[in-house]
Amino acid sequence: MRQSVRKFDSKSVQGQGTWVRARKMTVGEIAEADARIEVEGNFEYSMSILREKVLEWNWTDDEDQPLPQPKDDAGVLDDLTDEEFNFLCECVVGKQPELKN
């Protein structure tokens, strides 16, 4: 069975013990993204991809309160730092190493 949903260690942007589960993009989706980015702009299109592909996480805000799950509150992505945003982009494109469990 194909396993496109992966779990990623996010300690580099959120601290020890944090993770993200995301669905990786297919080669076709990456090719489509290249074409759409030219029309829609990189940031706007990237946000739409993250809203679709980031499934869950155990991230917190600056007060150490749990952030809502992206599937429950798509607006939560608007409050991310640029490092967190870039990390998530790398997860769905396949540039971040996956956790073993």
Structure characterization notes:
- The chain is an alpha+beta fold.
- The chain has one domain.
- It contains 4 helices and 3 strands.
- It has helices at residues 11-14, 27-40, 42-53, 82-93; strands at residues 5-9, 19-23, 54-57.
- It has a 3-stranded antiparallel beta sheet with strand order 1-2-3.
- Helix 2 packs antiparallel against helix 3.
- The two termini are 17 Å apart.
- The mean pLDDT is 87.
Would you kindly provide a brief summary of this structure?
The chain has 101 residues and is α+β, with helices and mostly antiparallel strands. It has helices at 11-14, 27-40, 42-53, 82-93; strands spanning 5-9, 19-23, 54-57. The protein has 4 helices and 3 strands; from the N terminus they run E-H-E-H-H-E-H.
Q: What secondary-structure arrangement, pairings included, does this model have?
A:
Elements: E1 5-9, H1 11-14, E2 19-23, H2 27-40, H3 42-53, E3 54-57, H4 82-93
Antiparallel strand pairs: 1-2, 2-3
Task: Tell how many strands the DSSP assignment holds.
Answer: 3
Strand order of the largest sheet: 1-2-3
Average pLDDT confidence is 87
The general outline is globular
